[in-house]
Amino acid sequence: MDRKRFSDRKIEFSEIIKRKSEKLLRSKITYILARLLLGGIFVFASIPKVLSPLGFSQIIYNYKILPDFLIYITASILPWIEFFCGIFLLIGVFIRSSAIILSSLLYIFILIILINMLRDINFDCGCFSLTSNGNNLNGFVLIIRDLFILFPGLILIFHNHK
Amino acid sequence: MNRIILFNKKICIEIITIIAISISVGLLRNLIYEESLSLFGIYDLKTSERNLYEIGAYNIDNSIEVDAYAVKHLYENNIALIIDIRSYVKYNDGHIPSSINLDSFNSMNLSNPKDIVIIVTDESSNKILSRYYRKLIKKGVKKILVYKRGIKDWIENGFPIEKSNSQK
Question: Is the pTM of this model over 0.80?
């Protein structure tokens, strides 16, 4: 009897948690916070790359994933995509499209990190700075960080906010 | 149940707009800025190295700075190779015994590099530090130490120096 009551309560409790978290994820505040967070992160991350495409080309080269003829063009354009998507998220225009682009980029970054971990290639992340200050994060930490950043992106994409 | 349509016409147009804006600005910036890149050119490490000091790439900040006593211990026990990257004049005026200058470093074949290399530098030579740092990494040196306080600090600690009469 007690056992049944306990399992009923457990189901009830998980239902409450589920409902509450769904409500929280669908709330307008979460949507705005996710927008500002993702936008802010990407604007912040893009500034050093926008200022020094040459430095960024070095970082891309070190990843050893792109053919040489694509390195400069990627270094010139990718930071601006991050920058504009971030700005659009901050000012609140093209929200879903920006979130789709940034989330896709994050997926690609995660994939690249995974590939380089498997190939055992040592690389500087270059995510927020072009300099290496001795605090190089290892691949797993980078992936976890990217997954955390991906979360607000997914909220923005799948949010039904009207 | 509400279905979320990820890619409708509006979203596609917005994505294309964002990418078009980014490409335009990126290319424009590349045109007007002095540090322009040849966009479809093959990646050239040498071209990119010209700005190494400014951008601080190649883990320069990752290097370990050592003091005079550590340098003395490493050189006396023949553990480390000491490279003095200061100018020839300064090197000839006085250098740490057994250290080699840039000329010797450039011509030497580090086919069997020691595990530790110490770079002796001073304020005016810090600009070229990154270049040698990278060269050493390429040659397979495992650990690079930088003696930034350099020969001045060495003399202040009362350690011996060597003088050369090279014409360089």
Answer: no
